[in-house]
Amino acid sequence: MNLYVHFPFCRRKCTYCALHSRAGSSRERRADYVADLARRAEEIDSPLSTVYFGGGSPALCELGPLFAALRPHVAEGCEFTVELHPLDVTRETLESLRHGGVNRISMGVQSLDDATLEHMGRGYTFDEAERAFALVKEHFDNAGIDLIAGYPTEPNCSRLERLADWGLRHCSVYSLILEERSMLSKMVERQAIKLPSDDAVLDRIREVSCFLKSIGLRRYEISNYAAPGFECRHNMAVWRGEDYIGLGEGAHGRIGLTRTVSGVAETVTPETDEKERRLFCLRTIEGLDASGHPEWIKPLDKFADEGLLAKTDEVYRLTERGSEVCDSILAELV
Ligand code: SF4
User: Fold this and answer.
1) Which long-range contacts (CB under 8 A, 24 or more apart) does 28-36 make?
2) 13 close to ligand 1 (CB < 6 Angstrom)
3) 79-93, 230-244, 290-304: lowest mean pLDDT where?
4) Is 98 in the same domain as 210?
C-alpha cells in the first residue's frame, strides 16, 4: 500500500500557489493536526511500500508522533519521502527526519533567479537554496528538487550549469499554471505582469530538459527526471494505477472504487476506475498498454497518426511533441 500525507501549513503564501495551504498557523494548531494524523495512521492495516509527506511544508510540524504511529506499518525497503522548503533545512531537522525513517527528500527550489524567487515570495536566494541542498545531501543521497518553468519574471538562466554539481538524483519541472485564486493571477488580471507565451515556456522546458539529460537525469514522466534507479516510486505507483491512502486536509486517496478528497469519499464506476488507473500510465515512459481495450484503440491511433504517440504492438508512448500536450490528450481520453 502507498500513503500520501498532506500538511497544509506554509511560512507564507507563494504568489503562484492556490494549493490547499495557509500561512500563520500556531504551533498548537500544527501539533493538533499531527496528533489527528497519528490517530488515523494507527488504523492503517496494510504494510506501506511508499510514504510521501507533501504540502505545504511538512517540516513546520513536529513530526515525531506521526513517525511513531507509522513505524509499525512501514514495510522493509519502504520509500519514505518528505518535501522540504529550503528555509526548513537545518541539521537538526534532517537528523530528526532520518531518525523518523525518511530516506528521500524533495526540495522545492522553484527558480534559479534571485529576482524571481523574491517575486514568488519564496524567502531565499539561489545561493541559500544551494547551501540548503548541500546540507540535505550530507544526510540523504536520494534527494532532488522541483523547478517551475514559465514564471513571468524568470529569465533564460545560465545558472542551470550550477546545478551540475548538486548531485541531483531527481528533478521535477512543472509548467506554471495560472491558478484562479492565486496572487499571480490577480497581478495578471490587472496587467501588472504578463505571462510568457506558450512557446517561450516550451523553449524553457526544452532547455532544462536538455541540461538535465546532460547530467544523467532521464525523463521518465512528462514532468519528472531521475538518475537511473532514483525514479519516485510513490508517484510511479500512483501513475501505474495502484491504490493509495490519502491522509490530511488536502489529500486525495484511491482504494478500490472509492476516491477520497480531503476526507470526503465517493464511489466511481468500474469503467471509470479502469480508465483512470490505466490511462495515466501514458504520462510515464512505460506507456499505456491498450490490450484488452479495443474501444481505446481508435482514439489512441488518432493521436499516433498526429505524431503525438508512438505505437509498439498495443503499447502507446508519448512522443517528444506528445509530452508537451499530454494533459489535453488525457482530457480527451478520460
Ligand atoms: S507553493 Fe508550497 S510553500 Fe508556497 S504557498 Fe504553496 S504549498 Fe505553500
Assistant:
1) 30/60, 30/61, 30/62, 31/61, 31/62, 33/7, 33/8, 33/9, 33/61, 33/248, 34/61, 34/62, 34/63, 34/65, 34/66, 35/65
2) yes
3) 290-304
4) yes
